[in-house]
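Readers of this paper often ask what the protein records in our data store actually look like. Such a record has a labelled line for the sequence and another for the backbone structure tokens. The tokens are whole numbers drawn from a learned vocabulary of local backbone shapes. We quote a single record here, exactly as it is kept in our systems:
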Amino acid sequence: MPMTARERVLAAINHRQPDRVPVDFGAHRSSGIMAIAYRKLRMHLGLSDTPIRVYDMVQQLAIVDEDVRQRFGVDAIELGRGFCNEDRFWKPWRLPDGSDCLIPAWIDVRKEGDDWILRSSTGRPVGVQKPGMLYFDSIHWPYLDNVPDDLSQMPEAMKEIIWATPSPPGPGADLLAGAKALRASTDRAIIGLFGGNLIEWGQNLCRNDGFLMLLAAEPETAHKLLDRVTEIHLINLEKYLGAVGPYIDIILFGDDLGMQTGPQISPKMYHEFFFPRHRALWQRAKQLANVKVMLHCCGGVRPLFEDLIAAGLDTINPVQISCDGMNAAGLKKDFGSRLCFWGGGCDTRHVLPSGTPAQVREHVLGQLATFSPGGGFVFQQVHNIMADVPPENIVAMFDAVSEFNR
């Protein structure tokens, strides 16, 4: 008998061969599509001219609608899709290409001269989109000048970074009710986007260069900062899974540990600063709920896989196959029985934006043949589909998955 979408995804994560390769498109903030490209995709598919809803203002990602999920056979969905479906939660805005869209009504974004300025819940300018930019860039780091001795006010500082946009008001913020409703309405695997970032919170607070220098030059201060971040995450994790734990299948953490050429930090430094804290967070999540732990982690992070697995990681995305050490065959051979690869299905750096549909198809079929045997693989392109990707290439990518599954 055919599996349900949820059964298919969980079989893959548990390294059992599913009835077909499960597919993700838009079930988290790194498997989606920029709003500009999404409008073109809907037009190419001949779908209705529905308003484009931008749920991630910084990356300008569109909500992938149900008709598109059906067209591409998507097996996973983000918990947030259960919220804020009423018109009153959205307001009009204009994308950088001049096309209209909707953005969350509670987002504070203002035109100042030629620039759009994004403000935090405290009203502080935290991001800018200058003419010609397709996204917002960070302009404020609370601990850029120094890390304070007293970190008791860190939660307030966390509200003043680019990712800390205000929360939805009123009934749309009813986490438990929304989670129950979504679970009752779908058989797709549900992903709860928790975050729980460590290196990225250090970089959000101190700026990338500042935090990396802190790790190297002031390790005691770095440990103190990371202890406080972890403490806050654990408190929030208890609240989050206390509400939605029974209604999600996967909890998504995030930490971009890698670059094109390898990890941002040495494996030794990862083991000292981040391994014990990741382990504490991920093991606690599994104690609180029957969930699989996923990590969003870009870059060439193969040298960290042994520690990530030992810390309790079940699945990793986006599997950036164009980076050093991230060859699909090598990853599958060395880690395929212990780690589920949620991604790596199509190279979004070179192939998807620049190839022909035929080249996209050939590439995707090769990735599927490598990653899919024995489970341990959920198809996702490597990270979000950018604004310049031709819609015919997007269709060729997903149609290749359907062809492989047949």
Q: What stands out?
A: The chain has a mean pLDDT of 95.
